[in-house]
């Protein structure tokens, strides 16, 4: 396993958060959703499967659990594939401003993110 690429995984996640707009300043936001206290009954709370590291053919080896997505978050599954299409690594959890992306090049790997928010643990089946 290429440890330097594995150590670069947090950098990759940071880049996706920046690209998806989760670090944009409130002053520059075009539109914001304002939730009043009376509207909390309409906010859907979604629980997501969480696993920080899962290699092909193995169970979750780090960070297994459940996270609760806030109103700005969604459940996500990220898969990293080798260029030949062979799976290399999977991670799941809650991600702010999640965006579906497919086959983004990252060094010698391809990265795919899938997001959902329809029901609890929806990212188990993605």
UniProtKB/TrEMBL annotation:
Q: What would be one Pfam family of this protein?
A: UPAR_LY6
Question: Which domain of life does the protein's organism represent?
Answer: Eukaryota
Official protein name in the record? Prostate and testis expressed 1
Keywords of the record: Signal
* Residues spanning the signal sequence: 1-21
List each copy of the UPAR/Ly6 domain by range: 46-124
Q: Which InterPro entries match?
A: LY6_UPA_recep-like
Gene designation per UniProt: PATE1
Q: Does this entry carry the keyword Metal-binding? A: no
């Amino acid at each position: 396993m290429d440890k330097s690429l594995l150590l670069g995984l947090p950098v990759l996640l940071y880049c996706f958060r920046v690209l998806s707009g989760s670090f944009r300043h409130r002053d520059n936001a075009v539109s914001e959703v304002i939730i009043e206290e009376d509207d909390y009954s309409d906010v859907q709370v979604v629980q997501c499967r969480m696993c920080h590291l899962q290699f092909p053919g193995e169970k979750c080896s780090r960070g297994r659990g459940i996270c609760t997505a806030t109103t700005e978050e969604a459940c996500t599954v990220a898969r990293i594939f080798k260029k030949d299409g062979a799976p290399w690594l999977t991670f799941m959890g809650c991600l702010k401003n999640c965006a579906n992306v497919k086959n983004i090049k990252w060094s010698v790997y391809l990265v795919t993110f899938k997001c959902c928010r329809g029901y609890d643990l929806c990212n188990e089946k993605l």
